[in-house]
């Protein structure tokens, strides 16, 4: 019997376009201890493995092609939206960093996390969105970099790209953990256009101790891995 992953695009725009692909896999005897290899074979920026789901709480682990992450926004938002789309009542996701709260707002699904839970990013603010779009990913090596510029500072709308060679991601289409960190640093709600046009939204909550990140998710289907 083959091993399958469900795939969704996370942080799509209002037309359902763009977004960051996510692999979702139920853990089993054939996956335990093989998560890193499976994530590498799948090749998405992140793959999330569901270890358990009961009473509205899901326990999961997240892997890039080269390492496990204690928390990431794109996989938790995508998993929450996928479970909700399947008719499941998902209220929390437990990952190694802690317990992530889940809520919906219209067609957006949000997760809540502490900014320090995610990877450490080198943030670089540029002068304009055009400067962000002109960046050569080859200029960023050996770290995790997030370059951004205001589209409309008053409205909290910005343009961003993320380069993560240190975690096996040359360029990430949409990065929830970076959005959470930046919103926490700036202390304000944000609308982020990242990559080719993915959309992320943040809300600063609990007096700035926590940040929500959310967006829209579109189902892609199921693929056989091996």
UniProtKB/TrEMBL annotation:
Gene3D superfamilies: Diaminopimelate Epimerase, Chain A, domain 1. One of its GO terms (molecular function) is isomerase activity. It comes from Microbacterium immunditiarum. The active site is at 46. Pfam families: PhzC-PhzF. One of its GO terms (cellular component) is cytoplasm. InterPro entries: Phenazine_PhzF-like (IPR003719). This is Putative PhzF superfamily epimerase YddE/YHI9.
